[in-house]
């Protein structure tokens, strides 16, 4: 398996109309590592994430300046369908399609040009095994995905992303809508993905960031504008923060 690329932003600024949501962010998400993005509500974490696979372009008044590099390639030069396959995303609320479990994975595979039924079925099984769902649901692949539990739905959504063989996976608070046991399962899956994928995970759960992330980045809204305050090894961010805001946030004194 080739090493996944890093993802880096250079002077990334995002405006919604006149509102500056994120300003001048220079952040490198290292290849094959887990990076946690932390910070108080409204500091621009989701907005930033949405720039990285150009999902933000679906918001009419959004305007992005600066660059996002996947490896050394500017993402604007990658066709958006290809980009979204290479940079998968998992949302806070599991969002399976209102289709069968099988079709949730088969549909995007067909959309991306896979026609061979044996190959599709093989990929579906491999992806469901990768997220530990195969044994739980292999006898009801034709059942509606929406009948699964929240935790199973989230794992199905991860399997759907993995089926497309992404290089990077963006996760926006992937555990916050889940019960503790499901949350633990998803967290352990993230650990399994380390190395093979480049992961950027937004989390409000500082203990989770500490447990899973190699690197941690703190965002903060300064006068309403989201900025990157500090980025470093997770241990350093939590134990020896360089910035006063980081120290205040990770010790619960602010935010
Ligand atoms: N479509 C939009 N139009 C205008 N402003 C927006 C839009 N989406 C987000 N914002 C604003 O941009 C800022 C950053 O929002 P964002 O959701 O990215 O923050 P966040 O850190 O992800 O927050 P949370 O942790 O609560 O999810 C906020 O002030 C928000 O109100």
Describe the structure.
By secondary structure, the chain is of the alpha/beta class. Helices cover 36% and strands 27% of the residues. The protein is built from ten helices and ten strands. It has helices at residues 45-52, 80-86, 101-111, 117-130, 134-137, 150-163, 180-193, 206-212, 234-239, 244-250, and strands at 7-16, 19-29, 34-38, 62-70, 73-74, 87-90, 168-172, 198-202, 215-222, 225-233. The protein has a six-stranded mixed β-sheet with strand order 6-7-8-3-9-10, sandwiched between helices. Strand 7 (168-172), helix 7 (180-193) and strand 8 form a beta-alpha-beta unit. Helix 3 (101-111) packs parallel to helix 6 (150-163), helix 4 (117-130) crosses helix 6 (150-163) and helix 6 runs parallel beside helix 7 (180-193). The protein starts with 6 loop residues before the first strand and ends in a 5-residue tail after the last helix. The model has no long low-confidence stretch (mean pLDDT 96). Adenosine-5'-triphosphate is lined by residues 16, 19, 21, 39, 41-47, 59, 226. Residues 7-250 form the ABC transporter domain. This is Phosphate ABC transporter ATP-binding protein. GO terms for molecular function: ATP binding; ATP hydrolysis activity; phosphate transmembrane transporter activity. Keywords: ATP-binding, Nucleotide-binding, Transport. One of its GO terms (cellular component) is membrane.
């Amino acid at each position: 398996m080739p090493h996944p690329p890093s993802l880096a932003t250079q002077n990334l600024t995002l405006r919604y109309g006149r509102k500056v949501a994120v300003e001048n962010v220079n952040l490198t998400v290292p290849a094959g590592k887990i990076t946690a993005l932390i910070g108080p509500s409204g500091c621009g974490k989701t907005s930033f994430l949405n720039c990285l696979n150009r999902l933000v372009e679906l918001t009419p008044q959004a305007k992005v300046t600066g660059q996002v590099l996947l490896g050394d390639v500017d993402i604007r030069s990658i066709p958006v369908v290809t980009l979204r396959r290479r940079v998968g995303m998992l949302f806070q609320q599991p969002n399976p399609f209102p289709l069968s479990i099988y079709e949730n994975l088969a549909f995007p595979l067909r959309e991306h040009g896979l026609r061979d039924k044996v190959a599709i079925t093989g990929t579906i099984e491999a992806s469901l095994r990768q997220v530990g769902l195969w044994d739980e649901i292999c006898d009801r692949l034709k059942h509606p995905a929406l009948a699964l539990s929240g935790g199973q739905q989230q794992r199905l959504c991860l399997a759907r992303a993995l089926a497309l063989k992404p290089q990077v996976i963006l996760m926006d608070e992937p555990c916050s809508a889940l019960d503790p046991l499901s949350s633990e399962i998803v967290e352990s899956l993230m650990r399994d993905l380390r190395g093979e994928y480049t992961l950027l995970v937004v989390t409000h759960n500082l203990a989770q960031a500490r447990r899973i992330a190699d690197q941690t980045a703190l965002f903060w809204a300064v006068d309403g504008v989201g900025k990157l305050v500090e980025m470093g090894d997770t241990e350093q961010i939590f134990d020896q923060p360089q910035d006063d805001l980081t120290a205040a946030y990770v010790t619960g004194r602010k935010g």
